[in-house]
């Protein structure tokens, strides 16, 4: 019903290899191969590589390397030598023995920020009879993609066939 969408026009910079043997869970800093091009305020994607070793350790048989890569969207807060500090702690460790990781600086001109929806009632009409399993009506109340720092609050949703709120894979901090 409500679709909040920026543009998927992320422009990646040069990929930097993480040189630490181990970056623990909740870390706010790590070391890269060459941080000379980074400065406070730069946006980065920290990638935890989903290698075959890591997949085997997780016991996730049937997954292929690359299918379980994790990306963490962060902002650089400090650079000292090749060590970068960022704004939000990591929610996963990164180990060289399990495939390691990379840092990808980026710009994203079409990503929209500080946008949301609030104080609405979304009600989808549907036919109760003769089909109690009617799916020929609205599936989602609010969807977001290519958005950061957004919100959905004080909403009520009725009779949707799917979900009240759907956040796409390119959404951050909603």
Question: What is the structure about, briefly put?
Answer:
With 174 residues, this protein is mainly β. 4% of the residues lie in helices and 41% in strands.
How far apart the termini lie comes to: 18 Å
Mean pLDDT: 92
How many distinct helices?
A: 1
Radius of gyration: 20 Å
Which shape, going by the Cα principal axes?
Answer: globular
Molecular structure report:
The protein is mainly beta. It is 4% helix and 41% strand. Strands 2, 3, 5, 6, 7, 8 and 10 form a 7-stranded antiparallel beta sheet that branches. Strands 1-13-16 form a 3-stranded parallel beta sheet, with no helix packed on it. The chain is globular and about 65 Å long. The relative contact order is 0.25.
Secondary structure layout plus pairing:
Layout: E1 2-5, E2 11-12, E3 16-17, E4 22-23, E5 29-31, E6 43-48, H1 52-58, E7 70-80, E8 83-86, E9 94-95, E10 101-107, E11 112-113, E12 116-123, E13 142-145, E14 147-148, E15 151-158, E16 165-167, E17 171-172
Parallel strand pairs: 1-13, 11-14, 12-15, 13-16, 14-17
Antiparallel strand pairs: 2-10, 3-10, 4-9, 5-8, 6-7, 6-10, 7-8
Give keywords:
single chain, 174 residues, mainly beta, three-stranded parallel sheet, 1 helix, 17 strands, 41% strand
């Amino acid at each position: 019903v409500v679709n909040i969408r920026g543009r998927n026009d992320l422009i990646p910079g040069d990929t930097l290899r993480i040189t630490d043997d181990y970056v623990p869970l909740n870390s706010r800093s790590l070391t890269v191969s060459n941080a000379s091009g980074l400065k406070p305020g730069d946006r980065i994607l920290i990638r935890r590589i989903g290698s075959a070793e890591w997949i085997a350790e997780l016991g996730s048989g049937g997954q292929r390397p690359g299918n379980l890569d994790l990306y963490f969207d962060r902002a650089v807060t400090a650079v000292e030598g090749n060590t970068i500090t960022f704004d939000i702690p990591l929610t996963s460790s990164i180990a060289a023995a399990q495939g390691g990781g990379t840092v990808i600086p980026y710009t994203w001109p079409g990503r929209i920020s500080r946008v949301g929806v609030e104080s609405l009632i979304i009600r989808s009409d549907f036919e109760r009879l003769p089909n109690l399993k009617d799916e020929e009506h609205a599936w989602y109340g609010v969807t977001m993609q290519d958005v950061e720092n957004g919100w959905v609050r004080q909403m009520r949703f009725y009779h949707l066939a799917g979900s009240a709120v759907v956040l796409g894979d390119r959404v951050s901090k909603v």
